[in-house]
User: What shape does this take?
Amino acid sequence: MKLRRMPFWVMVAGAMSLLSQPALAWDPATTHAGLTERALAGSNFHATLAHQLGRALGSLEPLHLDLGALAPNTGRSLKSRLDALDPAGGYRPSAEGVATASAWVRAGAVLAKTPPERGRHHFFEPRTRKGLDDGPGLSGAVHVARLTFDDGATVRDSATGQSFDLQGMPALDWLHSPQNDLGLMAFLDQWVLAVSAPQASQRETALAQALLALGGTLAVLEDAGQPAFVRNDFRGEFLARDSGSALERFVSDRYGSASLPPAPASVSRPDLDSYFVAADGNGLAQLTQGRFFSAGTLPEDIRFVSGQKQSEIVDLVNRSLRFPEPKVTSLDLRQTGRTHYVVREGIRVLAYQRNADRVHFFLDQAVHADMARSLLPQVEAYAAGLVDHLLRAKLTIVVADNKAQVTVTGAAIQAGPTFAAHLFAEDDAGVRTEIASQTLHGDASSLIEIPKGARRVAAYLRGQDSAGAFVAAAEARVP
Assistant: This one.
């Protein structure tokens, strides 16, 4: 039974006024969809589909997802989430469950925040590798109560952790978690089934599911380019005002999904985790945290004393910071009531004003504009690089004289027996059957006999190399 009113509401009404319904991360329907689309365009995504999986139209290939073929609970849940997508976004599948390959990826990026509470697992503080932790703020139970009354969550949901309690799994853990239906494991599993499932309809459904999971994976990385998500700032960014994050509203209103600033070349990193955090300091979460403030991690307002040394004021400001960077290096406090900016590398990262004997720090639209121009292209470049990283292993199938040989490139194949390649033959009815499983020595298998009458062969290879988990799949026609 869902509870709407009870006396307890009166007891917590004051606390509730501090909270608002979460609107987590970059706006899914606009910003996430746009970032993901640009990432695909800047990667080898189209070529992989066209040349590896035999999908001639590549990113524009229409794919049908058969919800009826999924487990009942999975199918119902996915249908309700897909039905909730905005038809104007260009990524909602048709009533028949058909969308282009790129649309399925964009849909996955949006579904990663559907319902919005899923975004609690997208927080990642790179110094500690911890996720969302609202311990310093009000009790998460207060927010659970808010959801119980305002959004119809049941008491049972609250007791079992199914409603949002202001805590979350670290983003990298969530990305690798088998609980994440749009994470790395789902992508790898479904990519294999996209070439190995017996029936053509099963293979197409698996490919659509793999692309949804690819989009969900990209959404987690894209949030590492939002300062609040790498500075553990849910409360200051999302709960301080009814309208949620001012930065995210600004980006969504300014750019929508189609007008995001262009990205530079895709970023290549040595492994998946290093796209977030690495010893060289060039993980996206590290770069974002060290360059930008979020609404709840600003310097504290300070008292201005006439004649006080500039160095003393700056030191007092920096001592109030929650994170070591970015630091304030100088302040212009000569005039009252005038907005000045802390500028780093030509980018306004912080606004401030002196009013009488107080110095107030804040983020305004000028800061948001500079942050967006700097952050969004970087996010796109990292996301494009992650697509190429996940699709780095390539298979080549050469068919001649009714024999096939499989070659792999892109994965760090070591000498000696390493990875098992699975080869399938497809008959005239489109049914695929495994005909061989062979450990690769070096980068190529021996010749494998193809059954008579086979019209296509397909293969997949899944394993772990020095850059992490990988999967490769390919198809080829039998001459």
